[in-house]
Write a structure and sequence with these properties.
Layout: E1 9-10, E2 14-17, H1 23-31, H2 46-63, E3 67-72, E4 78-87, E5 96-103, H3 112-127, E6 132-138, H4 142-150, E7 154-160, E8 172-179
């Protein structure tokens, strides 16, 4: 494992940390995979990935959370991101703190998104003292919607995402919510 990986917190199998330069190429591979990005309007370039990572690191420095770089602890392999981010696009419910994830295909179907998101919720409610966390996805993104349900989140709204307005397949989205008082530590 790289010496410069300092975990902010861990779950049973995952380590969560701020981003490092070595993550850019690995995350760019994930963002360039059409199957991983099938519920987004397009894949992302290496430059877009670098800008994303820079935004996440800046947000972490300011708020002590971001979409964290996630590593599989047993192997030390970077698997993608799981974490929290502030959403500010034009919507009645924004700004809100969103929980999200994007993992490489080899990390799918192993329960990592659910495990990691549960641990991020614990961090959000217990360490950061946030009162509410949201999650959103296009209605067609059933894998993510299923994770939201496994987290105990409740659907509160169906909406047309303004940043996806021109995409007939993706614009209809759902917003889920979990309140601190309803969160159960596992």
């Amino acid at each position: 494992m790289e010496a410069d990986k300092h975990y902010i917190f861990r779950s049973a199998r995952l380590g969560f940390r701020d981003w490092i330069r070595a993550d850019i190429e690995k995350m760019a591979e994930i963002n360039a995979d059409p199957e991983v990005m099938r519920f987004f309007p397009a894949t992302q370039s290496a430059q877009q990935t670098q800008e994303f990572i820079e935004r996440m690191s800046a947000q972490f420095k300011e708020k002590h959370f971001c979409y964290f770089a996630a590593d599989h602890l047993e192997t030390g392999d970077f698997i993608g991101f799981i974490g929290l981010s502030v959403q500010t696009f034009e919507a009645d419910f924004n700004p809100c703190t969103d929980i999200g994830w994007r993992l490489k295909k080899s990390a799918w179907q192993k329960g990592f998104a659910t495990e990691g998101a549960k641990r991020c919720l614990d961090y959000a409610f217990d360490e950061l003292k946030l009162e509410k966390i949201n999650a959103m996805a296009p209605q067609v993104n059933l894998p993510s919607v299923n994770v939201m349900k496994k987290l105990g989140m409740k659907e509160v709204l169906a909406f047309n995402h303004p940043l996806l307005a021109d995409d007939e397949r993706l614009r209809e989205c759902v917003l889920y919510e979990l309140l601190k008082k309803d969160h159960v530590l596992k």
